[in-house]
Amino acid sequence: MPVEVSRGGSVPCRVVVCRDCCCGSSKVTGVDHREQTARLAKDAPVRITGCLDVCDQANVIVVQPSSEGRAAGGRPVWFGLVNDPAATEDVAAWVRAGGPGVAALTDILDLYAFTPPRRARSAPLRDAG
Fold first, then answer.
1. What are 55-71's pLDDT values in tens digits?
2. CA pair distance 67, 82, nearest whole angstrom
3. H runs (alpha helix) in the chain
4. Which site from 8, 14, 68, 78 is most exposed, i.e. has the minimal number of CB atoms within 10 Å?
5. Peptide bond before 83: cis, by omega within 30 degrees of 0?
């Protein structure tokens, strides 16, 4: 079920999934990349992007805060090594709970969270293509 903007104008969390040279490729084995993206799309709008320049963390997922989360001071949270269905489900559950600025990061997700290098943070999240 696709997630939509509410009538009150609230924007939900958005999920950016890297799918380029390493993330989403055969270099990361044992992951059904299409299923991972489809699973996340059940709970939030998902955008596929090109390389985020943190290939050592493949598969990378960035959760951007909802309008409510941003108003509460939430900032994008980067997750790396999201390479199994349980980790994907943990990200999806956190997004359902409200994500950055709304829901506390779980202990499990804290293991996946990382601060990207400045060059990756300053680069625009771009669509793959």
1. 999 999 999 999 999 99
2. 25
3. 33-41, 67-71, 85-97, 107-112, 118-122
4. 8
5. no
